[in-house]
């Protein structure tokens, strides 16, 4: 997936400035596609040049004007074409998994250091899960009342929640295994 497609989806959900898009990426889209603010602005300029988005200058009292972007019919057509194209499964590259396999060739002190690293990694995923659950409670309090757009946003969030729970269960298994090796 190109960043352009994630931006088109976000702008179809709600037009906004580059700053607002970056905040959405930080809050929601970033659950499955990350981008820096600089990347978003660079791609927005290219998309505007290609005719996929249009920008409108918006006056702001006491602050510099901003550019609010929205999707053009050409951008929507490009998104629809992409939506209908087949998706290839992603190749997984997981550095921690390689380190865990490599722990068989390390000594007990090295494995102890790996336990600390897995615990740190686990804490990061626990914090992500907690953030997702709080967002679900805040943004989707009554799932049975959601329209199609909100239902699809919610199902993506539920996928993120399921993924984080799976990773946490695996990390707990890794920790149990590492801790039993050198007893």
From TrEMBL:
The keyword DNA-binding applies. Signal peptide: none annotated. This is DNA-binding transcriptional regulator, PadR family. The keyword DNA-binding applies. Keywords: DNA-binding. It comes from Micromonospora nigra. GO terms for molecular function: DNA binding. It comes from the Bacteria. InterPro entries: Tscrpt_reg_PadR_C, Tscrpt_reg_PadR_N, WH-like_DNA-bd_sf, WH_DNA-bd_sf. Pfam families: PadR, Vir_act_alpha_C. Residues 7-79 form the Transcription regulator PadR N-terminal domain. PANTHER family: TRANSCRIPTIONAL REGULATOR YQJI, TRANSCRIPTIONAL REGULATORY PROTEIN.
